[in-house]
Structure prediction request, 344 residues.
Amino acid sequence: MPTRLTARHSASPIVKCSVIVPAYNSQSTLPLCLDALSHQTVRKEEYEIIVVNDGSTDDTARVAQRVDVHYLHQTNQGPACARNRGAEAALGQLILFTDSDCIPAPDWIAQMLKPFEDPEVVAVKGAYRTRQKQLLARFSQLEFEDRYDLLRTNPRIDMIDTYSAAFRKDVFIGIGSFDRNFPQANNEDTELSYRLSSAGYKMVFNAEAIVLHKHPDSLRSYLRIKFWRAYWRMIVYRRFPQKAFKDSYTPKSLKIQTLLMATSLPALFFALFSPALIWLVAILWASTFMSTVPFSLKTFMRDKQVGLIAPVVVFLRSAVFACGSILGAARSLFFPSKNGSRRM
Prediction:
């Protein structure tokens, strides 16, 4: 499929930034995303929208080309590759990323650009919001809010999520862009963030740069996402082991809960042969459950219904985090890279 070039300038001093949207089978969500991006408070001449169709088999191509965007098509290679291709084609010196299932607020671009007034800032992270009423979706949003509270306390952060992200293009390209070996939209942004952080670059959080999103609204889908988050995070930790102990994005309680649960699982297995170990399992599980109290109380103050279910959901989250972490660690241990730290 040929590339459609629209709203492009051979010499483009007026284009301040390029917004890149990777899209795979996104015909149902992409229209709202592009409509929101087309109605920003920033003048239209100052930004461009790039849609990279990652080999969709639905009507994503037709949907994307209905509006005034720079359209690119590639065979299905994953979102990391799609984002990199969009960055390479970008005219702006600042590149912004959001996902095809996100709806940016009218001032999203303006808010993403504001921190770059500081010449030391090379990357900016925005925030999620949701309008969903389902209990699990509300829990997911408050889980993000808890992380945002942590980020607000840090003048420099080490995590830029691609749903609301901005980078200086020269730094993004110079450091190697997203690692194309991540096949799905899962932790490729974490790996890039840790590379930038390890290189000493300044990244910041702007809670006012908001995109709307649809969170998982069932316990099954929520836990499945958490399992694979933990699995791929262990792949990243192999490259940046220091981040397994401390980062600007993950509450300490979550790390402790995952460790407690990961310790309990082999203990539970060996308890089949040595029943006395069941007491160790009980202590570890009780400790995990007790560690949920601060977050549950904080959540209860914001949403009483969510606060009541929080201890159970966090306990189950710890269990799937532990399982995903163990499997991811086993992959890293027994199937290490043959071609260096950037390969899997």
In short: The longest strand covers residues 202-212.
